[in-house]
Design a protein that fits this description.
The chain is built from three helices and seven strands; from the N terminus they run βααββββαββ. It is 40% helix and 26% strand.
């Protein structure tokens, strides 16, 4: 099984979702199925079919989360020495060399990435260009819109 990098926060979020699904959603759905069965004919019982569909979705999500957690290589950036290099889990302040605009990204695992929170996947073009670089270095990112040149202003562990 290939190990998948994940931050401590990412693991915590998955654990919380898994707990909610197993201890809140699953019992609620089981109860709904039970109540729908008591109403009689299951062929024409919309509540029963809706609950079974929800059950299928929840069980699939539980299996998906358990699989992700089993494959996770949780990396606690706070326990790593700050070498100033960009690595998985670091937060990087960048300056666009053309526009002088600043942007901050945190490099996270695929399942944690959320561009609205400036969390980018380790496999994204920007993260791949940044990994191994240091503060003060210039990097060129080949993005869908063309090449973008950045200077690494700050690397935070």
């Amino acid at each position: 099984m290939e190990r998948v990098p994940m931050t401590v926060e990412g693991e915590k979020q998955l654990q919380e979702e898994l707990h909610r699904l197993k201890h809140e959603e699953r019992p609620r759905i089981t109860q709904a199925i039970s109540e729908a069965r008591e109403l009689g004919d299951l062929k024409e019982n919309a509540e029963y079919h809706a609950a079974r569909e929800q059950q299928s979705f929840v069980e699939g999500r539980i299996a998906d989360i358990e699989s992700k957690l089993a494959a996770a290589q949780v990396i606690d950036i706070s326990k790593l020495p700050n070498t100033g290099k960009v690595i998985f889990g670091t937060t990087v302040d960048l300056v666009n060399l053309e526009t002088n605009d600043s942007i901050t990204y945190k490099i996270v695992g695929d399942d944690e990435s959320d561009i609205s929170q400036n969390k980018i996947s380790i496999n994204s073009p920007i993260a791949r260009a940044l990994i191994g670089k240091e503060e003060g270095e210039e990097v060129e990112v080949i993005a869908p819109g063309g090449k973008i040149s950045y200077e690494i202003a700050l690397v935070k562990y």
